[in-house]
Amino acid sequence: MTFFEIVFYAFSALMVVSALGVVGARNPVHSVLFLVLTFFASSAIWLLLEAEFLAITLVLVYVGAVMVLFLFVVMMLDINITRMREGLMRYAPFGIAIAILLIVQMIMVVGPEQFGLQAFAAPEKHAADYSNTKELGRVLYTEYVYAFELASVILLVAIVAAITLTMRRRPNTRHQVPGEQMKVMKEDRLRIVKMKSEAIDSEERQ
């Protein structure tokens, strides 16, 4: 077994274990941290396959931005972990069946020969001026341009739907109107009252 295969199987095993930790962790914060570890293992495998752009994008976009947002939301939410775990074993068989179905679909799409025990060869060496970013962009905007545009439209619809749900009207919510605040005069907020002074005896002071 070559050094490439050892590193590949090591990061693959780490990715599988951390992915199981995402589902099996009792604390939601621990699940998010396991997911971060899964992304790091995936980026390491992409580096082994000389897909540097995908690896750096996974670390910067998902680990550096999306997962930080997920962690912030999870820590801010008041989640009842005990109540959430009550129906876990009841839905476990259904989840296992879905996982098996997904594995079968992956084997049918990718091909049974890719899931064998044969040795995986190292990626083909390219010249120093080779850019996988250029090759990825060429394939993405030529052969898969329609799928790319469709995914963009779906993400746009999801963003608009999320904003619409958060901007719903609440009856007891107060909103500021900056235009009305700028038009206000001092007479509207300040009233000067004139009062006569009265003498206070020493006994009243005490």
TrEMBL record:
<dbReference type="InterPro" id="IPR001457">
    <property type="entry name" value="NADH_UbQ/plastoQ_OxRdtase_su6"/>
</dbReference>
<comment type="similarity">
    <text>Belongs to the complex I subunit 6 family.</text>
</comment>
<dbReference type="GO" id="GO:0048038">
    <property type="term" value="F:quinone binding"/>
</dbReference>
<feature type="transmembrane region" description="Helical">
    <location>
        <begin position="55"/>
        <end position="79"/>
    </location>
</feature>
<keyword id="KW-1133">Transmembrane helix</keyword>
<comment type="subunit">
    <text>Composed of 13 different subunits. Subunits NuoA, H, J, K, L, M, N constitute the membrane sector of the complex.</text>
</comment>
<feature type="transmembrane region" description="Helical">
    <location>
        <begin position="32"/>
        <end position="49"/>
    </location>
</feature>
<dbReference type="Pfam" id="PF00499">
    <property type="entry name" value="Oxidored_q3"/>
</dbReference>
<keyword id="KW-0812">Transmembrane</keyword>
<feature type="transmembrane region" description="Helical">
    <location>
        <begin position="91"/>
        <end position="110"/>
    </location>
</feature>
<dbReference type="GO" id="GO:0008137">
    <property type="term" value="F:NADH dehydrogenase (ubiquinone) activity"/>
</dbReference>
<keyword id="KW-0874">Quinone</keyword>
<comment type="function">
    <text>NDH-1 shuttles electrons from NADH, via FMN and iron-sulfur (Fe-S) centers, to quinones in the respiratory chain. Couples the redox reaction to proton translocation (for every two electrons transferred, four hydrogen ions are translocated across the cytoplasmic membrane), and thus conserves the redox energy in a proton gradient.</text>
</comment>
<keyword id="KW-0472">Membrane</keyword>
<dbReference type="InterPro" id="IPR042106">
    <property type="entry name" value="Nuo/plastoQ_OxRdtase_6_NuoJ"/>
</dbReference>
<feature type="transmembrane region" description="Helical">
    <location>
        <begin position="6"/>
        <end position="25"/>
    </location>
</feature>
<keyword id="KW-1003">Cell membrane</keyword>
<dbReference type="GO" id="GO:0005886">
    <property type="term" value="C:plasma membrane"/>
</dbReference>
<feature type="transmembrane region" description="Helical">
    <location>
        <begin position="144"/>
        <end position="165"/>
    </location>
</feature>
<keyword id="KW-0520">NAD</keyword>
<protein>
    <recommendedName>
        <fullName>NADH-quinone oxidoreductase subunit J</fullName>
        <ecNumber>7.1.1.-</ecNumber>
    </recommendedName>
</protein>
